[in-house]
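Posting for a labmate who doesn't have an account.
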Amino acid sequence: MNNIQLSGKVMEMPVIKTNENGNTYANVTIAAKRTFKNFQGEFETDIVIVRFWKRMAEELCEELTDDAYIEIKGRIQSMVNERNGVTYYNYMIVGESFNIVSP
């Protein structure tokens, strides 16, 4: 099963874009704190970019405000590319739903 859940503070507001196939999307950047402390006893934060597609992207752009705290459910999507005989694996987090916890 390919499920991912993230929650964090919005760091960069999403903007609707259109790809070469005419599909709309928006990327939202969040700061998600890790659930464990490092050797210095502090929680580290990961900066994560999540892509939303079509209507969900439009709703995200309409409803989200600066400095909001958001919960996201989605999946990891893998892409395989080959260049000059070398295989590259890239991963993207695709958002499937969201909940704005605070404005």
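Reply:
Got it, the structure tokens are right above this. The chain has one domain: 4-102.
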